[in-house]
Amino acid sequence: MRMVFRWFGKNNDSVTLEQIKQIPGVEGLVWALHDREAGEVWPLVEVMEVKRQAEAYGFHIDVVESINVHEDIKLGLPSRDHYIENYKQSIKNVAAAGAKVICYNFMPVFDWTRTDLYKEMEDGSTALFYENAKVKGMDPKELVNQTTSNARFTMPGWEPERLQDLERLFDAYRGMTEEDLWNNLQYFLEQILPIADQHDIQMAIHPDDPPWSVFGLPRIITNEANVERFLALSDRPAHGITLCSGSLGANPENNIAGIIRRFQDRIPFAHIRNVNVHDNGDFIETSHRSKDGSVDIADIVKAYHENNYTGYVRPDHGRHIWDERCRPGYGLYDRALGIMHLWGLWDAYDRAEKGDEIDAEK
Ligand code: DNO
Ligand code: MN
């Protein structure tokens, strides 16, 4: 596995490149042009500037997360073609800078959804929390106001411009079925995958978070059957997934390690994190350790290890610990602990497999 770390840029992150440099085994940054709205072309000069900053610390910029898909594409409106052309240009520009993987998602209106960004845990740490009943009874606008006012940083997926328009968006999605969304996804893929292939880019869709419909909006990348259906849409090398253990793991019926074992060669990018799922459907993000949550992280790492996984891995989110003031889910400390846990598991599996050889080398 090739360890990477998400970084939001010089002016938009509490974590510095100096700090990331000191986390063992991190080789690259997961990045985006966070000032660019969905649907805009990412200018090459701006992409090259991120590359320059990353390389000054010895990091690569192989993984982009995310180039967001404009709502008109998800809605299948005639204006989608214009935004798809822009998307193609962004693919070409990040490829020109050396990027290899583009993570994206196809969730209508909202990206990841939580009801509390700083839910207090028993040990005094805080973490991202989803309360099922609350979402069911909530006006989406209320959630947006609450989320954006508590966030301390602008958050990917919750860009103010997009959310201002909430009512119009909800109107536009009224009556849209999951099948409609599948069709619009397929249309998008048919346009962009050939370009991605030409430029040696792998497109890696992120699963829906949480993996069920929220506020009546359709969601389709939610479980193993849908991952299978998604992957069957194209045989092109560019067509893959970002396997996010925490997103799919919010539904205890999803067997994440099983999905990895089945589709490993279609997973260029992995997000690894744990969630503790309660019986009522609430869930809270926890430390990476299997014991601390509902997702068997040790088995997930084992599944990657079994196949000598060479894709990119990041710890996704972490809790907020040791009084760190940071973007929700994206502090330094708990993500660094997560990385060390992942390396610990990986090295132990390595040792179990090749132990004698390793000892003989000494
Ligand atoms: C959730 C996170 C998301 C992710 C985007 C990808 O698990 O990883 O914020 O970055 O949904 O488009
Ligand atoms: Mn994720």
TrEMBL record:
Keywords from the named record: Iron, Lyase, Manganese
Keyword Nucleus part of the UniProt annotation: no
Cofactor(s) needed: Fe(2+); Mn(2+)
Gene3D superfamilies with a match to the protein in the record: Divalent-metal-dependent TIM barrel enzymes
InterPro entries assigned to the protein according to its UniProt record, in alphabetical order: Man_deHydtase, Xyl_isomerase-like_sf
Single GO MF descriptor: manganese ion binding
Functional summary from the UniProt entry: Catalyzes the dehydration of D-mannonate.
Protein name, per record: Mannonate dehydratase
Naturally occurring in which organism (per UniProt): Geomicrobium halophilum
